[in-house]
Specification:
- The chain is built from 8 helices and 7 strands, in the order βαβαβαβαβαβαβαα.
- It has 246 residues and is an alpha/beta fold.
- Strands 3-2-1-4-5-6-7 form a 7-stranded parallel sheet, with helices on both faces.
- Helix 1 (14-25) crosses helix 6, helix 3 packs parallel to helix 4 and helix 4 (97-125) packs parallel to helix 5 (148-168).
- The chain has a single domain (5-243), classed as NAD(P)-binding Rossmann-like Domain (Rossmann fold, 3-Layer(aba) Sandwich), CATH 3.40.50.720.
- The radius of gyration is 18 Å and the shape is globular.
- The structure holds NADP nicotinamide-adenine-dinucleotide phosphate (NAP).
- NADP nicotinamide-adenine-dinucleotide phosphate binds next to helix 1 and helix 4.
- NADP nicotinamide-adenine-dinucleotide phosphate (NAP) binds next to helix 1 and helix 4.
Length: 246
């Protein structure tokens, strides 16, 4: 029987690298994508079944070509984890449209550029799983996440919208909402990060979620529960809480 082929974008660091390594250790054939060749090679070092494929997800045409190439080389993608993203703190004082657009281009359009051809191929094959990496920051607006938060809210909404229709053709859509994970993305954060976990721990939550057919894979659960409860608060109480985070 052929190996499960997993494709993960943003596989050159952080959560993507840990997921790639853990999936390879479980016997999957893994293709990792990102813009930095050296980072992808570092991920695949010592792992015979991890293969790099350089890709900038903001380049829609390039995504199609890379997907063609990796499917020619390693067979159809069975599971795609759309994980590539950027994050820069942004709030009222430093809000700017160019920075906002960069977040939309990478986190939303970059994901969509991969999602569209994957959905078409998997629907034709009546088989496949697409996992969007969003964030608990997409649940509700948080201070300093004025550019990043809206992109993650969009991905959650997008996954909710697509899941029923994709399932009709045998394609599973899942969303991952991590809390704080210790990666290059969070390394520069100047604020406390409650319930911070390692990327290896995040990877094990994600792989466990792939084995089940749950829609949302969210962790660590105490932080997720707190933020889900905060979704129910009326605005007066919610802003009293988030003002304290400034
Ligand atoms: N860390 C956290 O606390 C946390 C919490 C919730 C959600 N998340 C989400 O988890 C995912 C992984 O983040 P991480 O924490 O592991 O951060 P990370 O180490 O910074 O990983 C982000 C990856 O995305 C890739 N990337 C960025 N722009 C790209 C582009 N245009 N084309 C292709 N690849 C691109 C980067 O590689 P190149 O620079 O080589 O392209 C990098 O490997 C992201 O979706 C993030 O939003 C993280």
């Amino acid at each position: 029987m052929s190996k499960t082929h997993l494709w993960i974008t943003g596989g050159g660091s952080g959560i993507g690298r840990s997921v790639a390594r853990a999936a390879a250790a479980e016997g999957m054939l893994v293709t990792v994508s990102g813009r930095r060749e050296d980072a992808l090679e570092e991920t695949s070092r010592d792992h015979a079944s991890i293969f790099p494929a350089i890709l900038d997800v903001t380049d829609a045409v390039g995504v199609d070509a890379v997907l063609d190439a990796i499917e020619m080389r390693h067979g159809p993608v069975d599971i795609a984890i759309l994980n590539a993203a950027r994050y820069q703190a942004m709030d009222a004082a430093d809000f700017d449209s160019a920075g906002f657009r960069d977040h939309i281009e990478t986190n939303v359009m970059g994901t969509v550029h991969c999602l569209a051809p994957l959905l078409a191929r998997m629907r034709r094959r009546r088989k496949g799983r697409i996992v969007l990496i969003a964030s608990v920051a997409g649940y509700r607006g948080l201070p300093k996440a004025a550019a990043y938060g809206p992109t993650k809210a969009a991905l959650i909404n997008l996954a909710e919208s697509l899941r029923p229709g994709a399932a009709v053709d045998g394609v599973i859509i899942q969303v991952v909402n991590p809390g704080f994970v210790e990666t290059p993305m969070t390394a520069g954060n100047q604020f406390p990060m409650p319930f911070l976990i390692s990327p290896e721990r995040a990877a094990s939550h994600i792989l466990a979620g792939l084995r089940r057919d749950v829609f949302e894979i969210a962790f660590p659960w105490p932080f997720v529960m707190l933020l889900k409860a905060a979704r129910l608060l009326p605005y007066r109480l919610y802003f009293a809480l988030t003002r304290r985070m400034l």
